[in-house]
Amino acid sequence: MENQIFFAIGLMSGTSLDGLDICYSKFIKTKNNWDFQILTSETIPYSSEWEHALKNAIQLTSEELLKLDVDYGFYLGEKTSEFISKHKIINLDLIASHGHTVFHQPKNKFTLQIGDGRAIKSKTNKTVIYDFRSQDVILGGNGAPLVPIGDELLFSNFDACLNLGGFSNISLKRNGKRIAFDICPVNIILNDLALKLGKKFDDNGDLARTGLIDYELLDQLNQLKFYQEKAPKSLGIEWINEQVLPLIKTQKTEDLLATFTEHAATQIANIFDFYNIQNVLITGGGAYNSYLIEKIKSRTETEIQIPKKEIIEYKEALIFAFMGVLRSLNLDNVLSSATGSQNDHCSGLIC
């Protein structure tokens, strides 16, 4: 059987609002395995207008949100078209878009990632696959995390994969099945606090290093009910608004950064030790936060591996491109063992 080769672009916008990640990759399917190569990738920073629009989308009226859904789809299409032209991309089977999450309430059977795929197609004239989460929620799942299918088929040489993005989420193999779940908030809190000090993010955790840990707040955070719940489970901005923000009162910003960094490191290390993880691949923007990584290392014996830059920054976009390829082949691209849905399934709308 000859190898099958696919070329795909993955689009990813995370809750930390770092920008739009675009990843163009080649996927090779052999008889028993998948392999990949990132060919080129780029992060498009959001303008202040887009950052404000996406951050405050949760406050919009129905009509305003519908308009933003389409407008953001056109934006994604325009940026992807520019990316294709800039890098002279000729071979391209599909574009897979995660969209930007506005609402995520799996217990109420809905989740919303804006960025209409039809608008993306109108600007690129390519097959577009989008809305990967809704079907899983309808099937009783959390609609997250979805990247474990990529961890299973592309990164199986690691005991676990941890993403440090807006939220931290982990994927690992247990009893022959891959399980995955969100651990705790990371950059969605740290970036917001850094903004109060005039920084887009806490570079290397240097601001947190200057702060003092508020142990009373730390204890309140560590006692939040979510951390006692069993996996699969996931977090959204609603949880931050309801459970975390009310705990923040008049603390100094540097102290809050120190406290939240300590909190994230504690929760992550607890998971490593609970599951007896031997080695872990860490990706996402938080992998550059040396203070956070130091804090995690000080609390666990787990071997931490930080990969090359393109994997750190584009693993999620890569895997959404891969999910698009699987969807185009009508192969399962969502694992029920990770999301809690009724069964493994093939998800994503095609246009």
Automatic annotation (TrEMBL):
Keywords: Kinase, Transferase. It is an enzyme of class 2 (transferase). It comes from the Bacteria. Coiled coil: none annotated. One of its GO terms (molecular function) is phosphotransferase activity, alcohol group as acceptor. Its EC number is 2.7.1.170. One of its GO terms (biological process) is amino sugar metabolic process. This is Anhydro-N-acetylmuramic acid kinase. The lineage of its organism: Bacteria, Pseudomonadati, Bacteroidota, Flavobacteriia, Flavobacteriales.
